[in-house]
Design a protein that fits this description.
alpha/beta, Macrophage Migration Inhibitory Factor
């Protein structure tokens, strides 16, 4: 935990190194002192089918959802969103400069008492 899901429209102009972006995102999350870096999971979804506003092809989006267990302090959630937003602005700088690109970051809370997890042992 946390689970990070990055979604972006297929028309973003940048080709970010997602492994590097995720590594830096994990640094942001670990810096809060709330999460063990080894437990953070990130993934990306590129959307080919989308519509933004009136359908202008120069509109793009980047959206990051950071899902964490409920009960974390609001100031920690703000540090997560602030740090992640700055990071995404760096990695999608070309899209910001050349397009109308909306970048959003949100922290979603997972209901603690209904969350279940299974992890297998490291394979040999």
């Amino acid at each position: 935990m946390p689970h990070c899901t990055l979604e972006f429209s297929s028309n973003v102009m940048d080709c970010p190194d997602l492994r590097k972006l995720f590594s830096e995102l994990h640094d942001v999350l670990a810096s809060t002192g709330l999460f063990d870096r080894e437990a953070i999971k990130s993934r990306a979804i590129r959307h080919d089918d989308y519509l933004i506003g009136d359908g202008d092809r120069h509109r793009a989006f980047v959206a990051l959802d950071v899902s964490i267990l409920s009960g974390r302090p609001d100031d920690a959630k703000a540090r997560i969103t602030d740090g992640a937003l700055e990071l995404l602005k760096q990695h999608f700088a070309e899209s910001i400069a050349e397009q109308t690109c909306n970048i959003t970051v949100k922290v979603s809370e997972i209901h603690r008492s209904s969350y279940r997890r299974f992890a297998s042992a490291t394979g040999a």
